[in-house]
């Protein structure tokens, strides 16, 4: 494999993990999700995140999956109104470094993922998601995105967000995620973990023998980093809705970067000026394409 091809594989692998924020198992109703909140109350209140958040991840022979539970400082109606809108999901998904483009139409999201630097749409990998609002009541909702294929041998992407109201100003959200991979994906993951991903870690404590007390590494660490990025993207998007419409894009771009910099060991990738310039251009490109 040439150096250029390997670099492209590694970039795609990181991007694939970034978009694999998908659904392992929904709780299916408000009562079950509220029960989960009660189970996690201590972990949500006492942690190192500086916010009410709990992250878990698992790895099996041919799949990765994870769950993010968080208390959002927004009412359920606001969260539901946003996350049941495919166009809002495009604005959310564009915030992380690797997402280069997203266009929503007819309950479909055409997403392009690639490098953590400026890149044309044509150079990035395409993933087509189907968007579905699976459930919506006065106190609960469940929205899902699915894609059969992704880059570098990844497949069966499932994105699921469900939420329930805690009180007039707070919502308990469950972001679940999963994707599968074959031989090509395993090879790419191995290369990633031996090179650019070798020293990177996640947020939870490792379960490996002899590593108790250390932060999770490997592909589980990658899933946790990207889960956090997407949770922060949702939160930044919701916060930006309080600003005048003309200021919302800049508000969410800067808010997302500021939030990620609270966890530099896991999430720092570039300086603010480079990120803001890149994302402004990508949002403008997205809006221009939507008008054509």
Give structural notes.
The protein has 292 residues and is α+β, with helices and mostly antiparallel strands. The protein has one domain (3-291): START domain (Alpha-D-Glucose-1,6-Bisphosphate, Chain A, domain 4). It has helices at residues 3-19, 30-45, 76-83, 86-93, 183-194, 218-240, 248-260, 264-267, 272-291; strands at residues 53-59, 63-72, 99-105, 108-113, 125-136, 140-149, 154-167, 170-181. Strands 1-2-8-7-6-5-4-3 form an 8-stranded antiparallel beta sheet. α1 packs across α5 and α4 packs across α6.
CATH topology: Alpha-D-Glucose-1,6-Bisphosphate, Chain A, domain 4
Proportion in helices: 40-55%
The number of helical elements comes to 9
What's the domain count?
1
Q: What would the average pLDDT be, to the nearest integer?
A: 84
The dominant shape is globular
User: How would you classify the helix and strand content by structural class?
Assistant: alpha+beta
Radius of gyration: 18 Å
What CATH architecture would you give? 2-Layer Sandwich
Main beta sheet strand tally, sense and closure: 8 strands, antiparallel
